Every structure is written in structure tokens, then in C-alpha cells.
């Protein structure tokens, strides 16, 4: 009963935060973390112990799947170089640089434990990035790089975190074994995502062949997909996070949704939008619920001189260290990309100083960092306490909050003026897609209208319905006539119009899929137009059923 009440309370405050964010003018994640901290701070406040594995299973697969599904694949593929550079190269650079800096700043933390904290802090949080970073402020190219990095670096960061913890437990580390394990986790994680997607497609295809299956059963399969991918990869000791991301990235391009009925498609669109909002909000509120307990237990290593100043200053210095490491790596990568472009006789597209700084500040940390650090074992193999466990948990929580606050306050100032005023490229692309889809629909309708009328059709009605305006006038005239023959003619005209409209919609959908495959439009544009088409199709099917 207490668990049910806790879930209801969290959901209530998720809804409240959605309204409050319009009044307080702070980023939604920061507000939700603050709400969670307020709920937990009083003496009799809400307290909840997080099981890290359960926390990752409940929140991370659906959120990463949703973000990966909505990510623009065309842009991610075009920017795969800098994305992989940040998702893999920056992770290792951060582990080494931040690990040594932490050990120097807080000598009581053993070096191998410092590397573990650096590894779990190296991934940026996809949920936090998308919630904090304003797409209207940050240049589109940088935004796509940040999205792609945050989707992929969780796997590399958490895998290296496991190796560092294992080294702390056993006192030994093998670079060759770690490299092979990393490659295994990545490869099997990707395969698990592909396999889960294949199973889901076959299940939807089977339900589609059976016919008459409730739309809710089809929707349930799409909901289970990220969890199946995650659990399948974890079962084989691979990266469940990468499996969920892979499934999300490939879902749109595989055409799995063509096996969904119109009603199921509408429910899926609505449900995933609601899921994304609810899970995002619940995640940050639960994150806030952990803070008071962590802050109450300020480690003595950070409170020997001043109870408040020393911990805050340490957290701030560590956060700035992470930002500086990102800035240096982005700067080096930018120089290397420019040099490679000149060697390949291509036009270089270097980032300016402010864009590099914006990309550095936007690398916020979030739930995956907290869940990972809370999974630290309590004791070593000999039974002695795990060294500096409470200290690194405190520092990880502090860096999460500090990175969110710095990004929320500094990013709008740094990025002001980076995006030039004018028409959004996405809007122009969407207009082009609409024109192309409409032309395809017109061509299909004209072709149908010019075919011979089938036996039983009222002469001339097919052409009249295709012309649209003529059909509307014919229905208006027929509606004023009470003759049975006129009413039958009106119904027949309406049926023909619906059939033609559905044919036009099918042509629109085919044209959009072709443009998406050719890379002429991205996923954002395609998803917006597919949603409109699905809604229109549902209305027409409803009219057809009533007739």
C-alpha cells in the first residue's frame, strides 16, 4: 500500500511541475529535482531506497528508446564522426583526466575508486540533455551531436565503471580483458536490440494476419520492446542500455509500424508522448528525493574545516573540471576534423569558441550517473568496507545538481545569438515534404479517376468525387432531395470520396517513406507528417464505418 501511495504522490507532483514550470521560469528537470528534495527534506518527509538495477530497468529503457526513436537518424549518420569521438574517446579522456584530478583534490579517495567515479560521471544524460538544452538557442548541428553522444556514451561509461569497480574489489586490472569485454558488451548489446526488434515485428505481423485483434494488444508489444531489448542484453552480460538505444534507432527505418492498425498507431503515438513526460518527471523527482539523505551524510573528509563551504567548493571544482575536459576534447576534435577535411579536400566546418563552450556546458549528468554510483558494493571481498563509498556517492550527486544548474543558467547566455534569425530549416523541409506528398496523392487520384468505372458504379460519380468541389455541390443538391434514389446516390458519392481519399493517403505515406529512405527529410519531419496522416485516416475510417 505504501508503494502505491508513493507512486501516486510522485505522479501528482509530476503533473504539478508541468504547471509550475510556466510560472517559475526554470528548466523542468531542475524544478522537479527541487520538488523531490522538498518532499524528502522534512523530518517526516518521503524517503525511498533506490535499488539501482530496478531503477535502471524501470526508467532507462523506455526513455532511451523514446529519445532514440525521435532522434534524427539522417543527421546522426552524417555526424557519426564527432558523435563517436565524444561517445567513446571523450569517455576515456574523462576517466583518466578526472580520475587523477579527483585523487589529487581528495587524496582520501583511492585512485581506482576515483577512476570508477570518473567512469560513471563520463556519460551525459540523454533525458537531461533534451530537457535542458533549448533547440531554438543551440545550433542544430551541435544539438544533434549532443543527442547522439548522450545516446551512445552510457554504454561505454558504464562498462568502464564496472571494470573500475572490479579492479577495486580484486586489486588487479587487465587492459586486454577490459578491451575484449568492452567490445563484447557493445556488439552483443547491438545484436540484442536488433533481435528484440525482429521479434516485435514478427509478433505484430502475426497479430495483423489474425485480424480482429484489439489495438491495445498491438500497443502493448511496442511498450514491451525496449524492456525486452534491455533484459535480453543484460542476460548475456552485455549493455542493455545500448540494446534499448539500438531498438529505438532502428524502429522507424524498419517500418515496424506498418503492421499496426490505425487505432493502434494513434494510441501508440499518444501513449509514448505521455510515457515520456511521466517517466521524465518521475525520474527527476525520485532523483530529488535522494538528495536530502545524501546531503545530511556529508562525509567527514569534506567537512573537517567548514561544514558547508568545503563540500560545495569541492563539488563546484569537480564540475568545472568536467566542463574543462569536455572543452579541451571538443577543441582538439574540432582541430582534427578540420585537418582531415583539408587532407580530403573537403570544406571544413569548424566550431567557434562559443559553440565549443556551449557544447561543454551542455554535457549535463543525470539519472544514469546516480543509479550507477549507488550500485557500488558495500564491502570488498575480504569483508572490509568499500573505500570512500559514501564520499563518491555524495560527490556524484553534487556534480549532477551542479551540472544541471550551470547548464540552466549559463547556456542561454553563452548561446545567445548563435542561431541566426530566419526560417527554420526544419520548417522549409516540412513544407517541401508536404508538397511532395500532395503531388503524389494528386497523381494517384487522377489515375484512379481516369480508370473505367466498375460495374454498379453510378456513371460520372468517380470523376465527380475526385474533383472534390463538384462532388461537394452534388451532395448539397442531393441532401435537399428526399427521393430515395438521391439519398442512395449521395451515400455512394460519399463512399467513393472516402475510398479516393484513403488512396491518396496511401500515396502520401509511400512518398514520405521514399523521401525518408533517400534522406531528403529527417525523422522529425516524417514523424510529424505521419501523425497527421494517421489522424486523417482514422477520421475517414470512422466515417466509413458509420456509413
Automatic annotation (TrEMBL):
Residues 13-415 form the Cation/H+ exchanger transmembrane domain. Signal peptide: none annotated. Pfam families: Na_H_Exchanger (PF00999). It is found in: Cell inner membrane; Cell membrane. The chain crosses the membrane at residues 83-106, 112-134, 155-176, 182-201, 213-232, 238-257, 269-291, 311-332, 353-379, 391-414. InterPro entries: Cation/H_exchanger_CPA1, Cation/H_exchanger_CPA1_bac, Cation/H_exchanger_TM. It is a multi-pass membrane protein. Keywords: Antiport, Cell inner membrane, Cell membrane, Ion transport, Membrane, Sodium, Sodium transport, Transmembrane, Transmembrane helix, Transport. Gene3D superfamilies: 6.10.140.1330. Belongs to the monovalent cation:proton antiporter 1 (CPA1) transporter (TC 2.A.36) family. Na(+)/H(+) antiporter that extrudes sodium in exchange for external protons. This is Na+/H+ antiporter. It comes from Mesorhizobium huakuii.
